[in-house]
Structures are given as C-alpha cells and as structure tokens.
Amino acid sequence: MKRIFLFFLLTLFISSPGETRVYLDVNAPTLVQIPIVLPKWKAVDKTPPTLAAKGYEILESDLTLSGFFRVINFNSLPAHLQKKEGIPSTLYLQEWVPAGGEILLAGETTLEAEGLNLKLTFHLFDLVEQKHVVGKQYEGSIQNLRSMVHRMADEVILQLTGERGVNTTKIAYVNLQSGNKEIFVSDIDGANTKQITRNQSINISPAWTPDGKKIAFTSYLKRNPDLYLTDLDGKTLTRLLSHPGLNTSPSWSPDGKRIALMLGMEGKSDIYLVDANGGNERKLTKGHGNEASPTWSPDGKWIAFVSDRSGSPQIYAMSAEGSEVRRITFEGNYNTQPSWSPKGDRIAFNGRVGGRYTIFTIKPDGTGLQRLTSGGDNENPCWSPDGRYIAFSSTRTGAPKIFIMHANGLSSRPLTQAKGGELNPAWSRRLD
Inter-axis angle of helices 145-161 and 49-66, to 10 degrees? Predict the structure, then answer.
C-alpha cells in the first residue's frame, strides 16, 4: 500500500486526564521563559546515534528560536543525569528536579525496515507537579526528519502555550546576492533554503497564496513590472497582469479568490481588486493621491493601504468594496508598508523617524501605537500566521537581511546566516 503522505502522526496520543493547563501566557506584557530540560535522546536498537543527535539538535533549535523557552541541554545537566537517555517513568521524575527545569521533554529515535522507516517519540513531563503531560509518536521516511521534528516542536509549543508553533511554515523573500533580485524560500530556522526564480531579472513583492502552494510576485522579466504566479518548484510560471506601468504589491484575500494590488495607470497608482486568475479588474481607490501596498484584514472585510492624499504617505483602511475609507496613522510624515495581523488586532507598518525607517504596530482604530525596532533601516514587516512574530528587512548589521522578532519587538534574530542582501519577506501558512 502506497503511503499517501510523506509522513503522518500516528494515532498514539497519550495525555494525562483533566483540563489542559497553559504554562505560558505569551500575551502577557512580560514574557518569562519556561526552563525546559532536554535529556539526551535515545537511539533505539540499531538506530545510528548520529540520527538521534540530529533530531535533538533540530528540536533544541526550534524551541530556542521560539523565544518561549530556556532550553537546558543535557551536556549542562548534573553529571549523574548527563548519561541518562530516552523516556523516563513517572515513578522516577523526582530525580530530574536537580536539572533546574519546570518541564522535561524526553524522546527517542527508531530507524526500522532497512533504514526506510523512521519513528520519533516524545513525552512531556511537568517536573513541578511530577506528572506526565502528553506523549506522541511521528512516523515517516528518514528524509523527513527535519519536518517531523518541526511538527513535534509545534506540538510542544501547543501543549505549553495553548497555540501551535510555526516551525512548519516558510518565509519567501528577495535575495540580492546574485546581482539580480530572485525569489528564495527558507524554513524559519534558515534551513532548506531554495531558489524559486532563476530568470536573472528583478523579482520583488512575493505573496503566498492562502493554501501555501504558490507565490505571486512582480517581475521585470519582460522589461515591465508584471504580476506573475509560480509554484514552489519555479517551473510553472503564469503571467496574471501586464498593464504598462506598475503591477505590484499583491495581497491575497483570506479565501484565496481575489488579489488586491497596486496598479500604476492613468498617471498615478491605485488599489485594484482582481480575481485569482487576474481577471475582473475593479478599481477601489478614488481621488488624486497615489495609493499603494494593500493588505487584507483576516476576516476579509477590510483592506489597509498607503495613500498620500493628505500630502504625505499615511496608512488608511477601507472596506473590501472600496467604501468607508478612514485614516489610521497620524503621527509622523512618512508611514508605509502596512501588514495586518492574522489576529486582526494590530497593523504593522514602516515609519520614518529621524531619517531612518523603523517598524511600528498600531490598532486598526488608530490607537495603541508601538515602536518595535531601532538601529539601521527596518522595513517590509510581515506577520507569522499565529500573529506572534514579525519578519522584516533590516540594515542593522550592514547589508539588508531578513530578521524575525516577537510581536512586541523583543528577541530579534536573523533568518539566515548569509552575508546579506535580503528584502521583502512573506510568511506562509502552516504547511504540515
């Protein structure tokens, strides 16, 4: 029987009885990391120890990069605990208290059937209450080790925070290192970097389809900034719009049926709405100002955008039909690049302060302005699908690079270890 999915979650789901406890409130004003102990993973039977070590390394990285945990590596444990591996019995949880953590995350790796089938098992324990929390097992091919561990990390985050993590998502961005501008895609830990476009031209403004299967973007492939749609292999390319002038800044409606974008026509730029295939164009904005950078609200009822109708670029919002226009930003004389949070509660945008660009967030009603970044120019904010993180481009270390930070501006870190030349991040949905 052929396996339909690359890997799947087995029906094994062991959980302690009673109500689910949320160990960490990620929405609290001050985030206190949970100390979590990771004992050495066990390589079962003839499983290569290096395979178990690789799974451990990926899991430790995922949990650390989430920002929610202070991971206690087995090498830093007391000597009598460093050599213990695998999943302990609840009868012996007391011996792990000296490890200094509140949570114990133990696992093992099993390679079966001539190395063709891989099983990863984890169990989560509460060391404070001395109880078992949950246990799960994942099965798939050895090539899917990284994806399986990402799913495991997301499940751990769900159990401890009440919402799944985003380790199975990807970030598309513009890479400048080749001398051109090409679209690349990477896991959020910087691994599995893949080049999507190879047309040796200028490719900008990537935007994932809501199902995560394709990317819309603008390309000068035919010497005009036209709108294209590509699959993730970069082999199937469809030109959606090719009006003389700008066809750029695509933003997909949450249901994937429409695209809001900026078209440069009639001597100015306006926000238009088109069907997913590029047809049925409809102009949404009116007036003499230039309008740009549309972004949908998660309920699909509103579109935020940039307009200079007041004399300087500011963030506005309108209904998805182009009515009920209202201004959102009033502080500063240059506010652009809005991105609406998937939670619907805030809009991230780029504002100019003292000649530098920085990232802000604001409530859709124009209140609650918060500055998130400093140092260098910080632009192109976009949200993770859970609304907990923001990716953006920054020159704080020299050439522009993609960074990821918490939605409150803390714990920023670079996406990749490349030397620089990265712009226009776009965050996918969860892809598991």
Answer: 40
